[in-house]
Each structure stands twice: as C-alpha cells, then as structure tokens.
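Form 7-S
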Amino acid sequence: MKNRNKPLRQTGGLEPSYDSIVADLDQARREGEATDRQLLQRNRELAASAAIAEATSMGRLDLTHTLERALQVILDVTGLPAGWIMLVPEDGGDPVMTGSVGLPPDVAKKQAAFRSPECQCAKALESGRALVVYPLHAGCPIRAFDLGNGRLPVCHATVPLLTRRKVLGVLNLASDDPVSLDEQQLTLLGAIGWQLGVAIENARLWEELKKRDAVRSQLLEQAITAQEDERRRIARELHDQIGQALTSILVLLRALDSEADGAKVDSTEGIAISSAHLQELKAIVADTLDDVRELAVELRPSVLDDLGLVPALQRYVRTCCDRHDLKIDFQTVGLEAVRLPPSVETALYRIAQEALSNIVQHACASEVNLLLTARADTVVLIVEDNGCGFEVGSLMHGGVDDRWLGLSGMRERAELLGGKLSIESAPRVGTTVFVELPLENGTGVTA
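Output:
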C-alpha cells in the first residue's frame, strides 16, 4: 500500500505536492476570512458613522435630544439593550446624565445620582480609553434592570467621548453578556466615542456662538438705548439747568445794560444795584460751571485721561460711598506712580464701574473690597462684596436679563483685550469678580 503522507512525485520538479496545495488553500481561506472580518468591521464602522452623523446633524434639536437620537442609533448598530451618556459640565464638576435610551425612568434617575469612588467608570474619564465594567459595582442601579426573559445586566461598556483637547464625558452601554463587548465591539465604540465627542463640542460651540450673538444683539440694543437715554438726559440738563442759568445771566446783563444807559438814575443807588446784580451773576455762573463740570465727569472723567486709573477709581469710589452708603475698601499693588495703556485703563474703569453698579442694584451688600494689582505682564482687578450672591451657572447659562447682560458686557470688555473674567458666587455668601488683562512684554506699565 502506498504511503498517503508521502509527497507526490513532481514531474520535472514543477508539480506541487498535495500537502502544500492543501496548506496553501487553508492559508488562503484564513486570509480571506480575516479580510472578510476586517471588511465587515469596517462596514459596521462606516454604517455607524453615517447613522450617527445623520442623528447629530439635526440642528433644530437641543443637545439632549441629539444625543438620545445618536444613542438609539448606537444601540441599533451594536444590538445592545440600553445605554446612557454622562457629560462633564463645561465649568467642571461631576458628570451629569444628559440622555438615556432603554432605561426605565426610575433606573435612569438612580443611575444619574449614583456616585461611588470604587466605580470603574471614572477610569475612562481619567485615561481616555474604553473599558468593560465587569462585574458591576454592588450598588450600581442597573443591576436590577430587567432586560426581559429574566435577563439582568451583568456588565457595561464605558467609552470616553473625546476631542483633541479633553474628555467631554462617557458613553455607557449595558449588556447581559460580557462576550458581546469584545475587542472588535470596543474598537467600534471607540470610533463612535470620537465622533460623538466632536459632535458634542461642535454643538456646544454652536450654542455658545448663538448665545454670544444674542448677547451682542442685546448689548447693542442696550448700548443704543443707553446712548439715547444719555442724550435725552444731557438735553434735559442743558435745557433745565444750564439753559435757565444762561437765561438768568442774559436777563441780568440786560438790566445792567439799562442801568448803564439810564441818565436819570442816582449814581450812588445805581452802583449799589449794579453790585447786587453782579454778585447774583457771579453765583449763577459758578453754579453753572459746576453743573457743566459734573456733566462732563459723568460722560468721561478727565482725571482718567490726565492722572490715570487709580485716581479715577479713587474718585468714583468716594462718589459711590457718599451716594449709596456703601463701605468700599480700595487697595492697589504695583501701580504706584505708573500708567497703564489707555485701552486697559478704560476697560478696567468701566468694568469696576459696572461691578459696583451691579452691587448697588442687586447685591444688597454693605461692604466691598476692591483690589487692583499689576505685575510685569498682567494686571488684575478683584471686586468682592458681602451681598446676597447668586447661582453663577444658572445665571450665565440661563435666560438673558439685566444682571446677565451686565456681566456679559464686563466679560466682553476683558476678552476684547485678550483677557478673561471669572465669577465666584453662591446664595448668601457674596460675589467675587476676577479680571485679568495681559500687558504685552511688560511694556504696558509706564512711569
């Protein structure tokens, strides 16, 4: 009997053996299967990417609805039963549930409030890498979530939502089978996490842009209204005070002119009358001059141009203390006998003016600390009060009102000069406004 394992004889050394043909065919089959798997995986990624792009391109929906649409698409693509998205607030803090699909309302509510230092979800925020949480934390609310037919979640994938700058949050997908969250699935979810992260950042930037446009429109309208109000006030002041004063001066001058031309008036009596009229004229002119100076100071304090920011703020602080029974402690550091660039001085003066105006109108404060300090490359203004305070997040991200417009106007002034403005406040603990403006290469401070 012939040996079946013996290589076939080759004719002229050209005919391959049976075993080598089988090995080549087996290798080709494996390579084909690997290629098919890669093509299938790539096809899934492209299909998921296209579906998520369509879901996140609905500009009319807010971010929560957009993410829930995207989450539904992800569940359809992966075949997983439920998921939820936690986003880190833009101003920092613990992640907040922004959307969920497939979770009962009570489970979603508990999951949104669930916090544990032992939970593995936080690792994805720190590392920026997708992971599978298995087994679930003992206190995890989704452990009791019935998937149907007696199935319960035993694990979930946590996928970071990434941009080039930072981790914006995490995408969580529940499963009753750890095998379903294999390496290929995590690779797919990782690509989805990048795409969702970019969509979230774009949505936030778009919302911020729309809000800034609304603010600019409101500020422009407010500026025009304020300009017209100021013109109306100036016109009224000119008519009621200065106009009347000048009319009185004109009447007295005519009286003096008549006395000078009257030949029948006793010379001694005429001198006395003229002297009384002159005294009255001097008083009217002095009062009118004071009114004109006060009007000019309110429009633009000349001391700001002549002497600089510190004297101008000292004068404004004294005025606020006198008018509003407010105790203001004004301190400066590094600004002794120096001048800042005119644009910086004007911005800081107007920001301080607006901050003190807000305190008078809204804070119900009795004491204010005002600190102005300059270094080689920056100047910092800090305004702190002991008033009623407010929720910064709800005001700055809520509807537009007078306080919001005032704070936004201050921030706009700072950002126009490349600086930044931040606010720290809470109900019943007062408010602190921090302003930092750059001084290019230290050349902004001059003696």
